[in-house]
Amino acid sequence: MLLIDLIESDIIRLPLVSTTKSGIIRELVEVLKASGRISEVQPVYDALMVREDKGSTGLERGIAVPHARTEAVKNLTVALGISPGGVNFDALDGKPSHLFFLILAAPGQSGPHIEALAEIARLTRSQGFCDMLINATSPEEVVRLIKEE
Q: Mean pLDDT across the chain, nearest whole number?
């Protein structure tokens, strides 16, 4: 299953309220709980923070991809958060992150996880496209933009 097939309006938070790395991660995990994709927040949050402690998942050009493997999911699960103002996510380029693609995979499922990362790289290679996502006014607009890309 492709990442774009998993992007639905109920797993998108726009705009994100949190202004810290841990807050962004918790907020996106709570989005997954509210959408029924996970049943518990804390174990998923803990798995993501353990991964984050190994090295920041803040990439470059305003993109962050917090991710973890957890027993809390059976299949690839994603949430997308957008912070128009940006948040310090300890990104590789030292700049604020605006687009947060949170990815969860079941232990032993490396294929879908790697495919999702590759798809995110493809989607976000255009700064113009990223700017359209950052400036979107609703989750439905984000879904439309991603599915049309």
A: 93
